[in-house]
Amino acid sequence: MTDVLEEAGTETAAGTPTSPVAVVTGASRGIGRAVAIRLAAAGFQVALAARSVGALDALAREIDGWALPCDVTRPDDMAALVRAVEDRAGRSPDLVVAAAGVFTLAPVAELEPADLDLNLEVNLRAGILTVRSFLPGMLERRSGTIVQVGSVSGRKAFPGNAAYAASKFGIRGFHNVLLEELRGTGVRATLLEPAATDTSIWDPMDPDGNPGLPDRATMLRPEEVADVVHFVATRPAGVWIPFLPVERS
Ligand SMILES: NC(=O)c1ccc[n+]([C@@H]2O[C@H](COP(=O)([O-])OP(=O)(O)OC[C@H]3O[C@@H](n4cnc5c(N)ncnc54)[C@H](OP(=O)(O)O)[C@@H]3O)[C@@H](O)[C@H]2O)c1
Fold first, then answer.
1. In the sheet where 21-25 sits, what is the strand order?
2. Which of 2, 90, 156, 207 is the most buried (most CB within 10 A)?
3. Which of 126, 240, 235 shows the shortest CA–CA distance to 182?
């Protein structure tokens, strides 16, 4: 275990450092799953949050994690998630990675209200709710790192992305306020804004068969994004990365 991980963890009564604890939402597949695997390989104890119980259980077995199924849009589920993590860890987590998300495409003139609601509810409202749920414990402890997975669509416009971009620009606005509120608290937050990444989020759009979308081969790999999350999470205390775009060279 590295010095940075020891710093992020805690100590038992006998003085032995325990593993740092990370919560990852959206851990059942895609970027969240890759993040959970990367963090576990680096020595984190990882709490896995998403709705797909089978996928979480399988991953928990693989990385010796904690499967904690929940719907991130439901405040009661989030409160139960916080309690479950704090009960198991005996403290608030060292790292929260908010990677649950959805993505639908439609021109503005054809945008279905249900798709607008879904993007705003999962990507924006639940992203905020995730931070809101874990923040009191982190503030009390005066330590911890929050990584919010935004998107390149939170700073650039792509046709068809109106609902998704509204949610991701929204999370950027939230993050800017969060940064101001966190100054001097010991808690740090990063908005990670990856470019297109080859995950199941693209499955309904068949990107390789659609000339208006990037080919999967040109996308980032979820493991590459996960590696960046690990980098952010393991900076020494006092080093803060408020924003981090991730693009393919
Ligand atoms: N892939 C990209 O090109 C790309 C690029 C930039 C940013 N991002 C962002 O990265 C994040 C992850 O995307 P991804 O590509 O990994 O997508 P993905 O493969 O579709 O995975 C989405 C994850 O979110 C979870 N999720 C969705 N709704 C949920 C809910 N109501 N409650 C709990 N969990 C929920 C899903 O789990 P369950 O279905 O099991 O609940 C799943 O684990 C999203 O915020 C996305 O906007 C993706």
1. 66-67, 45-49, 21-25, 95-98, 144-149, 187-194, 243-246
2. 207
3. 240
Q: Is 164 a catalytic residue?
A: yes
pLDDT digits (tens, 9 = 90+) for 101-152: 999 999 999 999 999 999 999 999 999 999 999 999 999 999 999 999 999 9
* Element holding 220 (H helix, E strand): none
Q: What is the DSSP letter of 236?
A: P
Nearest residue (by CA) to ligand 1, atom 14, is 30
69 lines ligand 1 (CB under 6 A): no
Candidates 103, 164, 169, 202; catalytic one? 164
Residue nearest to atom 26 of ligand 1 (CA): 100
Domain ranges of the chain: 3-246
Region for residue 144 given its phi and psi (left: phi exceeds 0; alpha: psi -120 to 50; beta: otherwise): left
Buried b (16+ CB within 10 A) or exposed e, 143-164: bbbbbbbbbbbbeeebebbbbb
Q: 103 CA distance to ligand 1 centroid (A)?
A: 8
Per-residue confidence (pLDDT) for residue 18, from 0 to 100: 84
* Residue in 118, 149, 206, 221 to alter for ligand 1 test, most ligand atoms within 8 A of Cβ: 149
On whether the CB atoms of residues 8 and 234 are closer than 8 A, the answer is: yes
